[in-house]
Amino acid sequence: MTTALLSSSTTSPRSEATSKRQGSVSSLSVTYDTSDRILRFAEVDDDRLLVLARTTLSAKLEVSDDARAAMDSFRSQLSPESIRRFREYTPNLPSDNVEVIRPFVNDAIALALPTTTYAVETLLVPVMQFVHWAVFVVGCELDAALIFDRKLIDAWVTDELPAHLAPGTRRNNRAWVSRVAEAVNPDKNPRAPMPMNERSMSEPYNEAEIVALDRWAAGQSTPYLRKNAAVLVALGAGAGLGSIEIAQVQRQSVVVHDDGLVSIDVVVKGEFKRRVIVTAEFETIIARQVKKLPPEAFIFLPKRTRTENDVVSAFVSRTSRPKGCPSIQVRRLRNTWFVTQMTNRVDVLSLMEAAGLESLETISKLARFVPKPTDAERTAQLRGAL
Hints:
The protein is about 50% helix and about 10% strand. It has 18 helices and eight strands. The chain has three domains: about 5-45, no CATH class; about 75-190; about 205-370, Orthogonal Bundle (hpI Integrase, Chain A), CATH 1.10.443.10.
């Protein structure tokens, strides 16, 4: 979408000069009504093909041959991998219902893909679940103007998603569906939605949950999935890396020392950020993963080429998770690493440097999860006698 034009006029209608542009359908400009002293907003100028293709997702508008051709154009831009993902996805929903909404869901995602960095597999699950709820529970017609409404998306996130989901998971689901909504129904989905709530601190995994994550990794269906699930846990809970860092760390950034110590140079978009020492518990996992990899290979999912930060969530979404296993979240893994370091009494300056922090806010919020020292240990620490 293009930036709105701001102009001054005595009336609200748009000038002829701004109403038409070659190759686009006229949609937003902003004019100032001097008589009423208010700004008047119309729609945003949009790509003509996209505007036409949207009409194929309407239950009310007559679909023209040009609109069908425009939708076919977006379908033709899909990569073979994206097409395979669409075909192979089998949601845990009534199959008859899925066949009714699948073409609608696939086309909506196809329109959104050129404007987002999210992968098909990231968008498919939440969009399919949302549309199924909107059509077969709420009773909406199969119409993008009705279904992809921000209020309905928020109602789904608030009322329909399982109560046990963490706030961050809810935000992610809303973000994924909203990216599609912005493409297919921009009138009801301005580009800068208000945040649902201030991000809360994700609790670190406890010892039993880490054991459950080990079982999750070991229980995947192929050696490649098992190995990379273990590497994901190791990079998060053993090195404190964030999602984008996990997605971009390469073999050439990892050094395995003779004594078994493993260090990682954290590089994001070609820029060195910091050096991290992997905790001893996870050294072997990383060392085994990098042993035969070429220098430029990724540590996590080395067969891929994508580097966006949704690489992790896309991977997790296609793994199997046994009943009772906690959800796999990078933020919780990183916070687990923090608590491990604080429990080991790593000094605050070293911890901030290793984590890439500029303030103590995260450390102070996580301090409540750190076991308290005994009176004798506290005395020795404060005395400097350790």
